[in-house]
Amino acid sequence: MEQSSSWDEWTVRHQFDRICKLALKGEVIDYQRHMAYRQRHEVLLSELPEKELSKLFTMDKYNLETHRFQVLGYDIEVKDALIAEALQTLTEKKRNVILLSYFLDMSDAEIAREMNLVRSTIHEHRKRSLELLKNIMEVSTDEKE
Question: InterPro entries from the xrefs (predicted)?
Fold first, then answer.
């Protein structure tokens, strides 16, 4: 009788051992399937192309970072602080010519009509203004470095 109870105990242990091994094998198979699924359907953020990565977020743009100029009823927004600072140093006429020409893509003839000036005057204002802006911006960037 004693031998029978130890035999039963040994059988139960081996059955329990077998059930545990089967359960662990099943868990391994589930884990491998899950990892294969992730490998097929998921991509690391560091491996995303720039175009796809840019779709994942948006950037808020606030008016604090822009400068606004009023020119002949037009509201012109300048986002670059260095350009805005340089534009503020110009006379009003020269600033208006630059803003209308480069920010609203108006021709010299259109600007002359709007400002009641001669086209050649507009051309000269634009030419001199660009030279002044170039000098002002070069000095500003040299000072910042």
Answer: RNA_pol_sigma70_r4_t2, RNA_pol_sigma_r3/r4-like, WH-like_DNA-bd_sf
pLDDT tens-place string over residues 111-145: 899 889 899 998 998 899 989 888 888 887 777 66
106 phi-psi bin (left φ>0, alpha ψ -120 to 50, beta other):
beta
Hey, how many other C-beta atoms are within 10 angstroms of the C-beta on 74? 14
Domain boundaries, the chain: 2-54, 63-144
Is residue 99 within 8 Å of 71, Cβ to Cβ? yes
pLDDT in tens, 33-79: 999 999 888 888 888 888 888 888 887 766 667 788 888 888 888 88
Class (C level, CATH) for 63-144 = mainly alpha
Residue with tokens 């198979």: 29
Measured CA to CA, the distance from residue 5 to residue 20 in angstroms comes to 22
Q: Cα angle at 99 between 59 and 61, to 5 degrees?
A: 10
Find where tokens 């242990």 sit.
Answer: 13
